[in-house]
């Protein structure tokens, strides 16, 4: 399988994450992409190619213009405001203070545009996020050009990013940008299958009222896991989109037998939808040794999953999402991708 990769992911190198009440070194770090790339090279998965620059149009087809402007200047605005650490949200427009105003002040803006506090905006974050969406778009164009499948080694990840919110280590929603790009290039229907441990709240919210993108996600039950407030089984779409969202929340310690039952159900729905393109939000934080997740998938289970997805024979773009068991994410990611082709 062809891989698209950009060195620019290294520009996203935050020093801090809030975790368990402490400031820690971020789980979502540059080494993640290096480990996966090394495994791709070592196993001879296929050619590795650079992305092209698509500019902002495909971003603005999915994201709010005010949000994009915020991301672009956030770090500079934060520094100009006299702060020494990385930009971080601390105050939100919550249920008890709903207001249509977007603050001028950068601290206020951060609260307005953030959906979680763990993710800082550091110097270089915007440039890395731009390169990450170019990786997803380039992989998509390779598939639209006739490649049966391609892998966008995206970093930073994207599936938690909503039309106008960042968080959960995500800034631009690479999977949503790729899906919308395919539609704009003539695809009639796109399915997004999100296998990251965490619910893809951003992707779901972007397409919730649409029938041209079918979003399906298998994830830790939001009653127990981040992002906590979306991803329940009764969220199935709205308006035209009714029936075009499917959620499979699973309990703590779910193993592959349980996970695969959800996958096979999702595959049945995808096949009935007859999409022109499948986008897989490929998080590998379902792995049993992941430090922040609670599923129990073993290394070989990823190969079985890749086989099941590949057997659909739908043109498929994989975009990298989460996965934090640094020593193993190269192995499990490539297990999945190589089995797709087999
Ligand atoms: N106690 C992705 O995998 N914090 N994002 C979790 C756990 C946020 C994960 C806290 C996790 C975000 C792309
Ligand atoms: Zn995740």
UniProtKB/TrEMBL annotation:
Keyword Transport among record annotations: no
Needed co-factor(s): Zn(2+)
Segments forming domain Histone deacetylase: 28-330
Source organism (scientific name): Pelagibius litoralis
Keywords annotated in UniProt: Hydrolase, Metal-binding, Zinc
Membrane-spanning ranges: none
Family the entry assigns: Belongs to the histone deacetylase family.
One GO molecular-function entry: histone deacetylase activity
GO biological process, one term: epigenetic regulation of gene expression
Pfam families: Hist_deacetyl (PF00850)
Name of the featured protein: Histone deacetylase family protein
């Amino acid at each position: 399988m062809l891989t698209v990769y950009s060195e620019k992911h290294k520009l996203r190198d935050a020093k801090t994450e809030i975790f368990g009440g402490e400031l820690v070194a971020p789980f979502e770090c540059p080494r993640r992409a290096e480990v996966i790339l090394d495994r791709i090279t070592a196993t001879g998965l296929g050619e590795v190619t650079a992305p092209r620059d698509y500019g902002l149009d495909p971003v603005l087809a999915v994201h709010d213009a005010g949000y994009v402007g915020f991301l672009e200047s956030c770090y500079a605005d934060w520094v100009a405001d006299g702060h020494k650490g990385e930009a971080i949200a601390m105050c939100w427009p919550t249920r008890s203070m709903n207001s249509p105003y977007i603050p001028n002040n950068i601290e206020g803006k951060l609260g307005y545009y953030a959906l979680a506090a763990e993710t800082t905006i550091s110097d270089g974050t915007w440039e890395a996020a731009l390169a990450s969406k170019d990786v997803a778009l380039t992989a998509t164009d390779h598939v639209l050009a006739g490649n049966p499948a391609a892998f966008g080694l995206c970093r930073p990840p994207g599936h938690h990013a909503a039309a106008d919110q960042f968080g959960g280590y995500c800034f631009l929603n690479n999977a949503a940008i790729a899906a919308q790009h395919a539609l704009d290039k003539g695809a009639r229907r796109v399915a997004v299958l999100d296998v990251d441990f965490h619910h893809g709240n951003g992707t779901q919210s972007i397409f919730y009222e649409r029938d041209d993108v079918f979003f399906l996600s298998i994830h830790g039950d939001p009653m127990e896991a981040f992002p906590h407030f979306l991803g329940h089984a009764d969220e199935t779409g709205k308006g035209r989109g009714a029936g075009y969202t499917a959620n499979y929340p699973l309990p703590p310690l779910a193993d592959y037998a349980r996970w695969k039952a959800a996958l096979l159900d999702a595959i049945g729905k995808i096949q009935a939808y007859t999409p022109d393109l499948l986008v897989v939000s490929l998080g590998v934080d379902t792995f049993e040794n992941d430090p922040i997740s609670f599923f129990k998938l073993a290394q070989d289970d990823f190969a079985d999953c890749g086989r099941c997805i590949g057997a659909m024979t739908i043109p498929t773009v994989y975009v990298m999402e989460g996965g934090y068991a640094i020593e193993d994410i190269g192995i499990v990611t490539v297990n999945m991708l190589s089995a797709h082709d087999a």
